[in-house]
Specification:
It is a single chain. This protein has 385 residues and is α/β, with parallel strands linked by helices. The chain folds into two domains: 250 residues, Rossmann fold; 73 residues, 2-Layer Sandwich (formyl-coa transferase, domain 3). Helix content is 38%, strand content 14%. The chain is built from 16 helices and twelve strands. It is elongated, with a radius of gyration of 25 Å.
């Protein structure tokens, strides 16, 4: 069982970073139940699991939070919970009657985790937005891209998942630890703008040191400006990645590419040479296939790896040996991380459909059978047959 075994978390259904945080907490052993809208229950439960991998690891209960009986049921569940996470705009949970003040009154030790893009306050707090907007305002997106080109959104990994879901999970775990000592819960205000800003910490340090030019993206050490830290196309159209920053790694790159002794390449940190050196080394990498470069450079100190698609990554020998990817319910997906020597993280439940476990969850969390029947009859909760 994972290190969070014994902790009970309520997830109010949402999209993106909230479900991702709930998945992480579940992977690490917490019992997480996902509270879905009753309107999401559509007929009998299909034979196969839900398609969204981020829903793995928790049971699903359908509750109408706008129904008095549904709200009362949620607050009853709160009394047995260690934490609750939600991803609505500021004020929505309060309007439903399940804001942090109400929940903490019912359970003073509750950790109330909130996930938004802009945060619970500030001029943008009530505006709509998506990952691309949050990482823009946080000062991150401007620095993803090559020289002379427009910024390139890095999927939605930086805002939604790195700056959002990861920080929500971390905040909830930290608050759970503190509650064990103080006996008091608290609200965790997680904003993707805040988390993304924290992810940029090293670059703020580099800027302060005068070694990161924020006005000229794509010209710096780590943003594809340097010839020794970039992605290069091979003769077969595939790509390889090079990260030979340190002198000893750069020396190995020079040796294996046959550039050892070249006076121009010897001036590794002369940024004025980087544009020309990038052209030269790009031409060199196009002389061999990706497999040929792998045969020459894999598992050396060049700091090298082939650029793999998701499907290719799942089949790479290193990832296969470490079981970095697993197959559950017929779907290949990342395995839980990180790894623990004693309390192994694991996936305990295939992705559930809305309302699939309503009866079982309510019973397991202390709602007697007669009341469950009344709730089902009134429409306050719904079970997918």
């Amino acid at each position: 069982m994972g290190p969070l075994a014994g902790k009970r978390i309520i997830e109010i259904a949402g999209i993106g970073p909230g479900p991702f945080a709930a998945m992480l907490l579940s992977d690490l052993g917490a019992e997480v139940i996902r509270v879905e809208r009753t309107g999401a229950v559509r007929g009998p439960t299909p034979d196969k699991p839900a398609g969204d991998v981020s829903l793995r690891g928790r049971r699903n209960v359908a509750i109408d939070l706008k129904h008095p009986g549904g709200l009362a049921t949620l607050l009853d569940l709160v009394e047995s919970a260690d934490g609750l996470i939600e991803g609505f705009r500021p004020g929505v949970m309060e309007r439903l009657g399940a804001g942090p003040d109400v929940c903490l009154e019912r359970n003073p030790k509750l950790v109330f985790g909130r996930m938004t893009g802009w945060g619970q306050d500030g001029p943008y707090a009530h505006a709509a937005g998506h990952d691309i907007n949050y990482i823009s305002l946080a000062g991150a997106l401007a620095h993803f891209g090559r020289a002379g080109e427009a910024p390139v959104p890095p999927l939605n990994m930086v805002g939604d998942f790195g700056g959002g879901g990861m920080f929500l999970a971390l905040g909830v775990v930290a608050a759970l630890l503190e509650a064990q000592t103080s006996g008091q819960g608290q609200v965790v205000d997680t904003a993707m703008v805040d988390g993304t800003a924290v992810l940029m910490t090293m670059f703020w340090s580099m800027k302060a040191a005068g070694i990161f030019d924020e006005q000229n993206p794509g010209t710096n050490l780590l943003d594809t400006g340097a010839h020794f830290y970039d992605v290069y196309e091979c003769s077969d159209g595939r790509y390889i990645s090079i990260g030979s920053i340190e002198p000893q790694f750069y020396a190995e790159l020079m040796r294996l590419t046959g550039l050892e002794g070249d006076d121009q390449f010897a001036r590794q940190m002369d940024a004025t040479q980087w544009p020309e050196l990038k052209v030269r080394i790009a031409e060199l990498f196009k002389t061999k296939t990706c497999d040929e470069w792998c045969e020459l450079m894999e598992m050396t100190d060049v700091c090298f790896a082939p650029v793999l698609t998701m499907s290719e990554a799942a089949q790479h020998p290193h990832n296969v040996e470490r079981q970095t990817f697993i197959e559950l319910g017929g779907t290949v997906q990342p395995a839980p991380a990180p790894r623990f020597s004693r309390t192994a993280a694991e996936v305990t439940q295939l992705p559930a459909h809305p309302g699939e476990h309503t009866r079982d969850v309510l019973a397991d969390w202390g709602v007697d059978a007669e009341r469950v029947g009344q709730l089902l009859e009134s429409g306050a909760v719904r079970h997918a047959e």
